[in-house]
Amino acid sequence: MQNEIFEVMPVRKAYMKMALPVVLSMVVTLIYNMVDTFFIAKTGNTNLVAGVSLGAPIFTLMIALGDILGLGGSSVISRLFGEQRVDDGKRLSVFCFYGSLLGGLIVTAILLVFRTPILNLLGADSETFRYTSQYYTFIALGAPFLILNFTPTNLLRSEGLATQSMIGSMIGTAVNIVLDPVFIFGLNMGAGGAAAATVIGYICADLYFIWVLLTKSRKLSMNPKLLRISASELGAVFAIGFPASITNIMQSIGICCHTAQIALPPWALS
Question: pTM for the whole thing?
């Protein structure tokens, strides 16, 4: 069926079959952001809302880091599949999967070690520090699952499994929406609850993607025995992945600089 999409199906039909799930995934993500903000705002605690907002660049950074191997890897793998080099594409998919997982663990370690200076860089002050720290800590601990999520999301599309990619995004969003009020209000976890719901949603999506890779995919793999990549292949992945992630990275940096400037006293801005 996947080969039929790329080799037999008319271009217009193939385009719609691949594009519609991607668009729907983006719509679902937008709805998630709106609902997440809604529940946080319902607390009526402006410092909590501000604390979560200050921690948002860290979440955006996770998306950017996930795009490096997700978008970069899917681009290279798609070309390999087009050249009928399925074994090479499968091998690269293994690298992207475990590479993103390892990268997430490294990010977690860095975020926890440099927690206080990063929170200060984000603009947390005496009133918002506690809430920003709560949100930041859960997001930092969940970094491996967040960053990993963007690899199979993109790789599955390279095999024509765009619908499965969309379903995974919807599962994560649905779990997050259900757990938000439970954690924020029911368990009184506040900002930490919002972050915990997000992380658990991504974990559920990751588990679904792993199931798809093991049972539905014929060209992608998670077999660690295939874990090898050449320098030229690594360069090709990064050549696409890094530029693709720059937008989100610069957005995170821009927000940090903006909030840090706002936090400065008036005399420092004159």
Answer: 0.81
